[in-house]
C-alpha cells in the first residue's frame, strides 16, 4: 500500500469505529515512530530471541525490522512478541547480501554490533546518519559478510568476565540508548513522513478492526447510493 492508494475519507470513516482512547493511543505512538533507525537480525537460531528483538523494536518505536533467513527460518513467537508483530513491519530476506544491499540503497549505514576490538563504545556512538543495526547468531555472532560491509562497529561496554550478552538483551540496551538520543536531538528529522504515517494509520486501524472489510464495503455502498 502506498500513499496515493489510500482513500483518506475511508480512513477517517474506519477510525470513527475506534474508541477515543484507541485513536489517541494510535496518534501518540505514531508520533514516536521512526525509520531513522532500523534493525536486522541474521540467522538467529533461537526463535524467542527474534521475537524478543521485535518486541524491543516496538517498545522503542523502531518501525521496521529485517529478518535474514539464509540458514534458519523464522516464525514469530507470539507469546514473547506480545503483539508486537501487529505493529512492527517485518521484512524477510533469503540472503545477508541482499539485505545489506537493500539497506545501503535506502541510505542506511550498516552498523555491526560486535564486542570485538575496533568497535565504538555505545555511549560514544554518534547518530548523524540513518542506521541499520545488525545483530548476529547467539554463538558465532555476525557473519563475515556483515563485518566486511559494516560502515562502523558498535559494542556495549562491559566490565565483567563475560564478553557478550544475549542478542535480545543487547538489542534492548542499544535501542533504548540510541532512540532516546534520537528523540532528544533538535536537528535530526527522525519522525515518519506524513505519507508513512498515513500508511501506518490505515494498517493499524485494520489490525484493530476485525470487520474492517465489511465496514469498508458498507462505506462504498453508501457512496454509490448518494450518486
CATH-assigned fold name = Alpha/beta knot
Looking at CATH, the homologous superfamily is SPOUT methyltransferase, trefoil knot domain
Radius of gyration: 19 Å
Q: Average pLDDT, to the nearest integer?
A: 87
Classification by helices and strands: alpha/beta
The CATH first-level class comes to Alpha Beta
**Using DSSP, what is the number of strands?**
7
Strand content: 5-15%
Low-confidence stretches: none
Count of spatially separate domains:
1
Biggest sheet record: 7 strands, parallel
Helix content class: 40-55%
Q: Write the element-wise H/E pattern from the N-terminal end onward.
A: HHEHEHEHEEEHEHHH
Largest sheet: spatial strand order: 3-2-1-6-4-7-5
Please give the CATH architecture. 3-Layer(aba) Sandwich
* Number of helices, counting only DSSP H or I runs of 4 residues or more: 9
Q: What is the global morphology?
A: elongated
Termini separation comes to: 27 Å
Quick structural overview:
The chain has 227 residues and is an alpha/beta fold. It has one domain (33-199): Alpha/beta knot (3-Layer(aba) Sandwich).
Describe the protein.
The chain has helices at 8-15, 20-31, 47-59, 78-81, 96-105, 144-149, 167-183, 194-208, 212-226, and strands at residues 37-42, 64-68, 89-93, 109-113, 120-121, 131-135, 152-155. It has 227 residues and is an alpha/beta fold. A 7-stranded parallel beta sheet has the order 3-2-1-6-4-7-5, sandwiched between helices.
Amino acid at each position: 500500500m502506498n500513499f496515493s492508494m489510500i482513500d483518506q475519507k475511508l480512513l477517517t470513516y474506519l477510525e470513527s469505529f475506534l474508541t477515543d482512547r484507541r485513536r489517541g493511543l494510535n496518534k501518540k505512538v505514531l508520533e514516536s515512530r521512526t525509520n531513522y533507525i532500523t534493525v536486522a537480525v541474521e540467522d538467529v537460531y533461537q526463535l524467542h530471541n527474534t521475537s524478543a528483538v521485535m518486541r524491543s523494536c516496538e517498545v522503542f518505536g523502531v518501525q521496521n525490522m529485517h529478518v535474514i533467513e539464509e540458514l534458519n527460518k523464522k516464525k514469530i513467537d507470539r507469546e514473547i512478541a506480545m503483539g508486537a508483530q501487529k505493529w512492527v513491519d517485518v521484512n524477510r530476506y533469503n540472503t545477508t547480501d541482499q539485505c545489506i544491499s537493500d539497506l545501503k540503497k535506502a541510505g542506511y549505514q550498516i552498523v555491526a554490533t560486535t564486542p570485538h576490538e575496533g568497535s565504538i563504545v555505545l555511549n560514544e556512538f554518534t547518530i548523524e546518519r540513518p542506521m541499520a543495526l545488525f545483530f548476529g547468531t547467539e554463538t558465532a555472532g555476525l557473519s563475515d559478510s556483515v563485518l566486511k560491509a559494516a560502515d562502523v562497529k558498535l559494542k556495549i561496554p562491559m566490565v565483567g568476565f563475560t564478553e557478550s550478552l544475549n542478542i535480545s538483551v543487547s538489542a534492548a540496551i542499544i535501542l533504548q540508548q540510541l532512540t532516546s538520543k534520537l528523540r532528544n536531538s533538535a536537528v535530526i528529522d527522525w519522525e515518519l513522513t506524513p505519507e508513512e504515517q498515513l500508511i501506518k494509520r490505515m494498517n493499524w486501524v485494520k489490525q484493530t478492526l476485525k470487520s474492517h472489510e465489511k465496514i469498508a464495503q458498507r462505506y462504498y455502498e453508501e457512496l454509490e447510493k448518494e450518486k
